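Lab notebook, bench 4. The sequencing result for the construct came back, and we need a structural model before the next group meeting so we can plan mutations. Quick request posted to the team channel:

Model the 3D structure of this chain.
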Amino acid sequence: MDALDRILPKVEKPSRYLGGETNSIVKDHARMRATVAFAFPDVYEIGMSHLGLRILYSLLNSRDDVACERVFAPWPDMERELREAGLPLPSLETRTPMGKFDVVGFSLQYEMTYSNILTMLDLSGIPLRTEQRSFDSPLVVGGGPVAFAPEPIADFFDCFVIGDGEETFPQLIDLYVELRDDYRDRPQGRRALLRRLADLPGVYVPCLYRTELDPEQGYLVVTGPAEPPPGEEPAPFPVKRAVLEDLGDYPFPSKILVPHSEIVHDRVSMEIARGCTEGCRFCQAGIIYRPVRERSPKEIIETTLKSLDETGYDEVTLSALSVADYSCFPDLLEKVAESLETRKASVSLGSLRVYGITDKTTRDTARVRRGGFTIAPEAGTQRMRDVINKGITQEDLEKATTAAFSAGWERIKLYFMCGLPTETQEDLDGILDRCKDVLRLARQCRASNEGKKGKRRGVTMSLSVSSFIPKPFSSFQWWGMDSEEVLEEKQRYIRTRLPRGVKLSRHHVPTSVIEGVLARGDRRLANVIERAWRAGARFDGWGECFRRELWDQAFEAEGLDPDLFIKELPVEANLPWDHIDTLVEKKFLIKDYLKAFKNKFAPACEKPYKGFEFPEDKDEKLVCYSCGLECDLKHIYSERKRERKLLMLTPPPQQPKADEPVSVDKAHRYRCRFTKLGRPRFLSHLDVMRTLQRALRRAKVPLLMSQGFNPKPVMAFGPALALGIESAEEWVEFHCLEPLDTERALQDVNRDLPDGIRFLSMEPFPQSAPSLTVLFDRAVYSVALAADEGTDLQQHSKLVATFNERTSYLVEKIVKGKTRVRDLKHFVGQVDVQLKQDAMQLTIPVRVGSGGSARPEDVLQAIYGRAPVGARIRRERLLQPGEPGPTTPTAPTADAKVREPIESGLEGARI
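Done. Here's the predicted structure in token form:
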């Protein structure tokens, strides 16, 4: 642990590797029957936002005999530091090396993370290939949407869980741990154990199957199970995905992890349904997650409110592949919005179809704060939308945007794809026309709102254009992907003709092409992936990291043409993923594929033929295309009608009193002193602010909120600390709607703060007292030098005295791209050095406040001519004017504080 702490100051975002988040679970491995590492092959901010992590982490840790911990892919700077220090990749909870767990489960969400999988295995000391592993290695398991077409990475995994993991993954863990010791000493015992695992629903063990080169298309396809040893049954073929029949059997967790640093989806995300039957022909998820399974409205509302209490978040997202297709969506949204309004929390919606954006929807989502709306027409013309089976019209688009703008929403984002099957120039022009339509409607709504109460700003509009990729198991899986040159030209066409006022973001075309190759590839691509990784491929989904030349060189070295895997295919072709059975029949996909070329739109299944409502007074026949799933349509119909009826009978939450908003001068003001010691020193000032705000909300402190579209707690903090510096005394103040029992509030707030952050006091203060921003004029820092710096007190004292005797010490800084010169001696008092506990310790008093300050790191640089390695810096105290303590220079003049570097013979250090 000490070794890891020493390298954290050297990386860009050390908060990614700290652990210790609120609601994280630490168990004693020695008491566990099984230990599991949940491995996410991308950065912390993305992995922590993933619903699957939240579900499985809570599910496995709810057991007394299983410990589940998290491991994320280290950013290249952290990978470099781990390798240089000779340290393995650790988990966040106990910093156990990933290679020491019984089972390592990778969440496979995106093909461009394949190189990161190899990084994580290699850093953990786990052999890359399953054939190289023994019982001393963990069982390496893959799951998630990418696992449905696993052949490119099949050689790196012992097995895959295909489909829903709530039931199968725990069964796999139990069976592996139960049989491992029995099979350890058997001939080919590991393979025999893997064969036992293959009998579990949805478990695919690649090494148990044979592959052959298809002469027609040139793909290496899985043709059946390999010949088993005598007395052993062949592995199941094809491999059928695991399906969780009822989501209610596994309630969504309310006590989710709360990160210290900001993540991509930094809020409560509530899964309201799984699956989608809208039938977009480009969509893989709509096939592999069928049929639609909905959580009950009662569970959704109760879990959402409980999660707010246990996390301290103030925002909730209702998540599903298509939120608007939840069978009683408008009523559910209204109930959730009403419940959250009483708590000053807001609700947002993920993946909302345009017919779900109504006047009612926009009002309910704007009760507390307004963010932005995202609309995904996908195609610019009605013909193209019919081809891809996107069930929206121009009228739907105009109604949705008008509803959003009329309700005061000021940010809107449009998603489109280029390179779709049968796409023409007219379809590209349609994308531009839809942008113009949105701008026109925005202007009309703004004009109609002129003179109404409240200030209106201009609409911010952004456009995202991605490249179509024919993903396995989508109806378009046989279509060929446009070449890189064609896609680049289409993006250029849109970019150069885009209306003014629209911000464009484009998916990187070379990345999309490699994604398409990896998505439709066969088992030979394992060698390509390993070659690219060994050459330096990392975080290929990140534009700043992607290096196309590494992949080109890897394909060339393996004698493979990338175009082979993204070409158009006949529907009778043998595909590298045909051995995986999604339960949706291939003949259904072929039929739907052929419909596209007749511009034929197919209404969503599992819904009434007319409209989307489930009528109370009569039963209507539901749409069904006989896709292969054995859906009980009568049960689906009656269940959704029953849930809607129960929802309508749910009493509304108690509404807050309709009093006038409380102003700051009438609120109750409290000032608190707290510490930030140990690992929290690697949290930024903003991270600490978020952590404390959420802790106060968990403690049910009735914080006063600011007014406006985006209310925030009315809080103030003392002078900010630089990253990596501890503090024995920090200050924060906040305003409350009610007086507090401060002793009880202290206990409640401290209950689940991270180790090292603790409230020491909480005192009421009069409104007339000065703000924390002007209260302090001095700070005292202590610096403990590492043992490598020596303990010769006379030598250190001489260097410190030389600095103290100087009247000026100029340093250069780059501020917003401009070079500025600052005199350090205007901000630093007399530095002291002593030998304490066999280590040198410096005391550095500095000025703080609006007049400026000095960083202790700059003072150390000035004293020693370099930054001492391993120095531990702590802010010991913040002092008010007149308070006893070390003195510092008086406030410098503006000329002395910041000057242009025109002095000749500049002495000092370039920082």
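Confidence is low (pLDDT under 50) at residues 894-911.
Will bring this to the meeting.
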